[in-house]
């Protein structure tokens, strides 16, 4: 007797396509989730860019102020902390993207290339922005050192250039207080400003070192991906140009087609009028005969 295996076959049939359908459904979901996360990272990078510009403005105001301004110092420290936290968040998320891409079953597919391109583009933007930020921080450090030398002269310091440079390299913010006896109010104000600027130098040097160590690996990755991104951007540019040419050709064809239809319509009207005149002329000739 033949065994009825219909139920068994139905179970296998229902299970296999279900898994395939599930995998197909998950792929678009993963793609959209990635694009959404990439868009969020782009927004964070733009926020960092705005904060970097704000830092530069506050630093300019600090250097232009005749004496130490606690409020500006507080805002500067708060912004530096926000920039660091957001930059680290972007860096960590990009690292997650990189790890997911390496483990992806779609490695080498179009979707995988899109992810790699997006990751490289965001990485390049972040590295360029943080390099710009670090450069501005080092410039501010040099200006703070110059400001300290000026304030030391106002405070009546007799320290040599070598002694001043040696003190600037030390991490003790009270080192200038120990070296200078401020007897007048002007000298005391100068000393407060000196200590504040020295504290700025200590903080920003620490911050620059931390960010440099954290972004060295990312910068190397960006350098390796640079040629790939340049090629992709070139192809995108050429594709956009080709699309533009195609649209112009299409618009021209539509215009020409419209003109042709108009000419045909006019020709038909003329033929109809000529036919009417011909009929009338023939009818008149018959009537006369």
TrEMBL record:
Region (Disordered): 1-29
InterPro entries linked: SNARE, Syntaxin, Syntaxin/epimorphin_CS, Syntaxin_N, T_SNARE_dom
Keywords: Membrane, Transmembrane, Transmembrane helix
Keyword Transmembrane helix attributed: yes
GO molecular function: SNAP receptor activity; SNARE binding
Compositional bias annotation for Basic and acidic residues: 1-14
Transmembrane segments: 265-288
Protein family per UniProt: Belongs to the syntaxin family.
Descriptive protein name: Syntaxin 9
